[in-house]
Amino acid sequence: MNKLLIATAAVALATAGTAGAADLPTKAPPMVAAAPVASWTGCYVSGGIGYGMWNDDHNLETNPGLVSLDSTVTGGGRGWLGRVGVGCDYQFNSNFLIGAFGDFDWMSIKGTNQNQLIATNNGTPVQADEKERNAWAIGGRIGYLPYPNLLTFVSGGWTESRWNQMIDVASGLPEPATGLGFPDVTMRGWFIGGGTEYRLPWWQGLTWKTEYRFADYRPADLGQIVLATGASTGFAEHTERFTQTVTTSLVWRFNFGGPVVARY
Fold first, then answer.
1. Is residue 24, in this structure, part of any structural domain at all?
2. Does residue 13 form part of some domain?
3. Residue 241 domain-assigned?
4. Poorest-confidence range of 5-14, 18-27, 110-119, 196-205?
5. What is the pLDDT of residue 120?
6. Would 132 be classed as within a structural domain?
7. What is the DSSP string of 113-172?
8. How many domains does the chain have?
């Protein structure tokens, strides 16, 4: 009987101890700090390559007077380009970015400019090689970060482009030179574009950018000249030019903004 009482008392004490322990307050799990991610705030240099296309809507005019003499003809060119650039960005509200940039393109975008110019070549239509050789642009961009390492953006600004001298030749085969042509010209206008930029995982300062741009240049009236003397032929060409480019570049970013704490 004594053994039974002792066993019962032991079980009761053990149960009470367990219940008491269960009622004690437990320690909260340690707080885990949000993981910091690299900021996109900072300045950068970039370099890359791309492909470009231009269209040239043009027609023959009198010079002076600039009276149209024929219907509009559209020419086009295709070719490669290289691009270098600099810029600075500022990231705010964790997911948004604004920036300013400038860049320069070396181009070899070639095509053919065809025109009638009948009165200046004894009734035979003529054509000329047309080449966009370089361009520069300054502008700004607005970006959104759907993920910490991926930036999407739209861009826009001002651009100027340099085009080579055009030397007229008679259409067909052979193509004898006419001794006529158009001098080098700089076209000025605006551009708009957009793209993505991805932070490469093996080096946080390096990103990969892909961008599309459309440039619209102001219309111009180019006087035709005698190439040997520079004298006017009495004709001009009214031209409206548009260029589209797609480029891919590596961007080396000098980050001075410090980490941004990711919000979950």
1. no
2. no
3. yes
4. 5-14
5. 53
6. yes
7. EEE--GGGTTT--EEEEEEEEEEEEEEEEEEEEEETTEEEEEEEEEEEEEE--EEEEESS
8. 1
